[in-house]
Amino acid sequence: MNDSDEGTGHAARSKRADARRNEQTLLDAAAAVFVTSGVEAPVRDIAARAGVGTGTIYRHFPTRADLIIAVYRHQVEACAEAGPALLASSASPHAALRRWINLFVDFLVTKHGLAAVLQSDDAGFDTLHAYFLDRLVPVCAQLLDAAAGSGEIRSDLEAYELMRGVGNLCIGADSDPSYDARRMVELLVAGLGARVSEP
Question: What confidence category does residue 173 fall into, taking pLDDT thresholds of 50, 70 and 90?
Answer without folding.
Answer: low
